[in-house]
Amino acid sequence: MRRLKDMMDMVALKRQGLSERQIARRLGMSRKTVHKYLEDPGAIERGRRPVERESKLDPYEGNLRAWLKEDPEYKATWIYDHLRPMGYAGGYDLVKVKVHELKEESQRIAYMRFETEPGGQAQVDFGEFQVVREDGTVGKYYLFSMILGYSRKIYAEFIEHCDLPTFLDCHIRAFAFFGGVPGEILYDRMRNVYIGRVAGKSMFNATVQGFAVHYGFTPRVAPAYAAWVKGKVERPFAFIREGFWRGYGFTCIETANRDLREWLAMKDERVHGTTHEVVRVRFERELPYLQPMPLRPFDTSCRVYRKVHKDCTVRFEGNSYVVAHTLVGKSIVLRVKDNIIRVFADNLHIVTYEIPEGRGHLVQDKRFYEALRKDRLMNARKYHHGRPAKGRAKLTISPVKPRYDMDVQIRPISDYDHAVECTL
Question: Contact at 8 Å (CB) between 355 and 340?
């Protein structure tokens, strides 16, 4: 197809009064071509119609599709070798091109654009970042990120551990930052969040479920191997890595979080590439749709269930902790966070202990054993009310202490022998 410039030159020369033969000689083309485009200028845009030619491979296209449907890993060489006995007379290159086209056609994937209503959904994920310290060692930090699906406003912070209490604490700080709670939160299949599917329903960690009920949102989980479902939160990780982290001089996690907040606040003034709106302006429209936060924050400590032993202790990570003797044999809950253990029985707080360094320690509050000593009913039950226990040795009469309370003096036999000698 002729270039548009050639067409413009033809028109200009025609206006100057040149004949079609003179124009053809001037532009170096045939007179018929000049006549064609001057008579029909639209032909230059339509171009030459492709000529459909029959291929030697056309009769065997059904075989190719059937083989590739059976096993998409079949190579063009294998298909070529099996076509030859069937009468195929063409070359291998033709087969190779056709197999490539069919494989691309079968692997082509289309996605549906997914947008949420204001306040409808947030997406959460973790990312790993490494830091080379001054002594040459490599430190590992994690980035928690929550993004609102409608406005694309991001809350992010670096943390040292990605355990469940820290994970939930990040949620609470994100809600406070946004000024409210979204209707649902979409998660990846994190092991400390998602358990699996039971009876066709997604099951989450019991603490995560209690947390969701407390703050009034619905937890959701993305399908396996479907990263595009969480694209809103996946892309900002590359956005933060390239825009903030690359070339950043890390000194400490507190400074990094402060600098990250300032950088994200600056980026809220940009026009988002997908929504084509300023992030801050779009968030101002979304804010009224967020749910209010509850009056009391959720207790994000780990819950550990233990049974109280006969020595009034519970075991946790190699140490023993004394509790009330009235709890012996009962199951209690240890709430562990920030090196502190809080003991609960039937939702009643019993005692708080600080976790010592090392193992093998007996950690106690002296009032518990003092109370055990003063419990007369417990001691009477333990010593069987002074009566001989079944299977134990019976009580005997003491040779020194009388069995009954009488004014009787017990003397040795030698005293009686001496008295007899004196009378003789």
Answer: yes
Q: Domain for residue 103, yes or no?
A: yes
Residue 215, pLDDT > 60, answer yes
Number of separate domains in the chain: 4
Is residue 62 domain-shared with residue 172, that is, in the same domain? no
Residues 28 and 153 in one domain: no
pLDDT in tens, 300-346: 888 888 999 988 999 998 999 999 988 998 999 998 988 899 999 98
Instruction: Give every CB contact of residue 175 below 8 A, 6+ residues apart in sequence.
Output: 181, 215, 293
- Residue 101 pLDDT: 85
pLDDT digits over 243-293, tens only? 898 888 888 899 999 999 999 999 999 998 888 899 999 999 999 999 999
Task: Look at 65-74, 130-139, 337-346 and tell me which has the smallest mean pLDDT.
Answer: 130-139
Q: Which residue range forms the structural domain that includes residue 28? A: 4-46
For the whole model, what pTM was predicted? 0.60
Residue ending a domain, choose from 236, 254, 289: 289
Give per-residue burial for 324-358: e unless 16+ CB within 10 Å, then b. Answer: bbbbbeeebbbbbeeeebbbebeeeebbebeeeee
144 and 245, same domain (yes or no) = yes
Q: Which tops the pLDDT comparison, 57 or 44?
A: 57
194 and 334 in a single domain? The answer is: no
Paired strand residues for 202? 197
- 211 lies in the same domain as 309: no
Q: What is the CATH number of the domain that holds 221?
A: 3.30.420.10
Nearest to 339 by CA among 302, 387, 376, 378: 302
Cα–Cα distance for residue pair 236/244, rounded to 1 Å: 11
Average pLDDT over residues 372-392: 66
For 22-25, the CB contacts below 8 A with 24+ separation are none
